[in-house]
């Protein structure tokens, strides 16, 4: 086994922390960028010299022409959406690889997702409606289909028709349409034609890259608080979003992982439903939304906004073994008179400093910091106003982790590396 290790990037909050920007930033010095979990529920916006790219499934390393990009087995892949996303780029051949073991997310998964959400009524999760839960559900129930099966569309059509036959009553009760055999076959042939040149055993590819001393970056999607096990269940996504997911989602060992960079916003957002103790329902929450343009990349939904949650952050730092944090969107706090940080929760009359089984009734205990005028566009730590530097030091102390990167605008270059 080689001593070469892969660097990992992981979201520490409820997603949308700005992972795409840092992956793109770090991809400039990496040979491989690998996605290991999630699907096109992810939305990563990257700005390079003023031009904006929206990525969902293609790894954010695609903007570095020299980097190879891997979609690992832990991902659920919607061929139709993937093919659409590929159109943004030319000459992907030879620098994009899709695992034959990734699971297929097909149009009926999205229909089931939306039907379930409708049936949940007031307890809806607020999913992206992309079919993520049903696709992972089928995988775990061992009735899913893998990307490798696209090599024989005739056989795959038959298998999926069998699956429909087995589930017909459920599909009918939910009002989910079953495509005809001819229609399904036609679609699968189309997917095969577009994707076949990219499908391979990506586990072998990553092993080889590790052995050859290549610099590898593992790109997480979603965030720790959306993790299927460690997030705010059931208001989570259906994958292992934390660092451990990189091992199973690519086929590598824990010892293959090197530096872990955790991505966190200088405040907090969440899309969809579920507990969010430091949410701000007032004017300041709205101001965070306006300043931070907090509207989803994938669904356009307004994101719920609130304050940095140091309790949830400590939980995330521990679970992921974070070596350094990249603190994003510090500029969004520019001009606030006061900045709050959630330092503990009050739960059933008690003050606690950990994430409990159920966050629903946890109330935030805040510490208030003085604000600053402007840090937008700063490219060195010294350029930051003293209050911003003090805010960062206080966060480091509360979380017990170094903040090694600070981001002060969406642009690739407005990034401070300490
Ligand atoms: P991801 O899902 O974690 O990759 O994050 P998203 O791309 O969904 O959301 C982050 C948004 O914040 C994107 O629109 C980025 O362009 C933007 N962004 C990233 N870093 C900064 C920053 O430091 N300041 C500001 N103002 N915007 C940023
Ligand atoms: P990135 O990679 C923010 C949320 C959805 C919903 C819950 C379940 O851009 O950070 P799903 O469709 O996955 O079944 O929805 O998870 N969610 C995200 N929120 N960023 C994401 O990805 C998300 N991916 C899923 O809003 O609350
Ligand atoms: Mg996003």
DSSP summary: helix tally? 11
What are the low-pLDDT stretches, counting only 5+ consecutive residues below 50?
Answer: none
How many strands, what sense, and barrel or not for the largest sheet? 10 strands, mixed
| CATH class categorisation of the largest domain | Alpha Beta
Number of domains: 2
Distance between the termini: 32 Å
SS-derived structural category: alpha/beta
Describe the structure.
The chain is of the alpha/beta class and 418 residues long. It has 2 domains: 6-77 and 203-417, Adenylosuccinate Synthetase, Chain A, domain 3; 103-197, Adenylosuccinate Synthetase, subunit A, domain 2 (Orthogonal Bundle). The protein is 30% helix and 22% strand. Strand 16 (338-347) and strand 17 form a beta hairpin. The radius of gyration is 21 Å and the shape is globular. The site of guanosine-5'-diphosphate has 21 residues, from helix 1 and strand 3.
List the helices and strands and how they pair.
Elements: E1 6-11, H1 19-27, E2 32-35, E3 44-48, E4 51-55, E5 68-71, E6 76-77, H2 79-86, E7 96-99, E8 103-104, H3 107-120, H4 132-140, H5 153-174, H6 181-195, E9 199-200, H7 202-211, E10 216-219, H8 244-248, E11 257-265, E12 268-270, H9 283-292, E13 304-306, E14 308-309, H10 310-320, E15 324-328, E16 338-347, E17 350-352, E18 363-370, H11 386-399, E19 402-407, E20 415-417
Parallel strand pairs: 1-10, 1-11, 2-5, 2-10, 5-7, 6-8, 7-9, 11-15, 14-16, 15-19
Antiparallel strand pairs: 3-4, 12-13, 16-17, 16-18, 19-20
Bound molecules: guanosine-5'-diphosphate, 6-O-phosphoryl inosine monophosphate and magnesium ion.
Magnesium ion binds next to loops.
């Amino acid at each position: 086994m080689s001593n070469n290790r892969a660097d990992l990037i992981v979201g520490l909050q409820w997603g949308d922390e700005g992972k795409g920007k840092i992956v793109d930033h770090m991809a400039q010095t990496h040979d491989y960028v690998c996605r290991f979990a999630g699907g096109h529920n992810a939305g990563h916006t990257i700005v390079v010299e003023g031009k904006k790219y929206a990525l969902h499934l293609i790894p954010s390393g695609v903007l570095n022409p020299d980097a190879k990009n891997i979609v690992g087995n832990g991902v659920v892949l919607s061929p139709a959406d993937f093919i659409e996303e590929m159109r943004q780029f030319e000459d992907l051949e030879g620098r994009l690889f899709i695992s034959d073991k990734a699971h297929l997310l097909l149009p009926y998964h999205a229909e089931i997702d939306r039907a379930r959400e409708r049936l949940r009524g007031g307890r809806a999760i607020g999913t992206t409606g992309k079919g993520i839960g049903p696709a992972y559900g089928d995988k775990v129930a061992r009735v899913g289909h893998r990307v490798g099966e696209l090599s024989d569309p005739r056989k795959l059509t038959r298998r999926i028709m069998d699956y429909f036959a087995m589930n017909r009553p459920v599909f009918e009760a939910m009002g989910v349409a079953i495509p005809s055999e001819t229609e399904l076959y036609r679609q699968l042939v189309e997917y095969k034609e577009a994707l076949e040149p990219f499908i391979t055993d990506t586990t072998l590819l990553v092993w080889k890259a590790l052995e050859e001393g290549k610099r590898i970056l593992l790109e997480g999607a979603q965030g720790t608080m959306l993790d299927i096990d460690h997030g705010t269940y059931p208001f989570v996504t259906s994958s292992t979003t934390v660092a451990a997911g990189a091992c199973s989602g690519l086929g590598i060992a824990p010892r293959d992982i090197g530096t872990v960079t955790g991505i966190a916003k200088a405040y907090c957002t969440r899309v969809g439903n579920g507990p969010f103790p430091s949410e701000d329902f007032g004017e300041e929450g709205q101001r965070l939304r306006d300043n931070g343009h907090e509207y989803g990349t994938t669904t356009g939904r307004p994101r719920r906004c609130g304050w940095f949650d140091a309790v949830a952050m400590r939980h995330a730092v521990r679970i992921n073994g974070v070596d350094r944090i990249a603190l994003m969107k510090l500029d969004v706090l520019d001009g606030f008179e006061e900045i709050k940080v959630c330092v503990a929760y009050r739960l059933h009359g008690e003050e606690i400093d950990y994430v409990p089984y159920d966050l629903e009734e946890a109330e935030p205990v805040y510490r208030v910091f003085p604000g600053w005028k402007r840090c937008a566009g700063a490219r060195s730590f010294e350029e930051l106003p003293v209050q911003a530097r003090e805010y960062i030091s206080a966060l480091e102390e509360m979380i017990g982790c170094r903040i090694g990167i600070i981001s002060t605008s969406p642009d690739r270059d407005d990034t401070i590396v300490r």
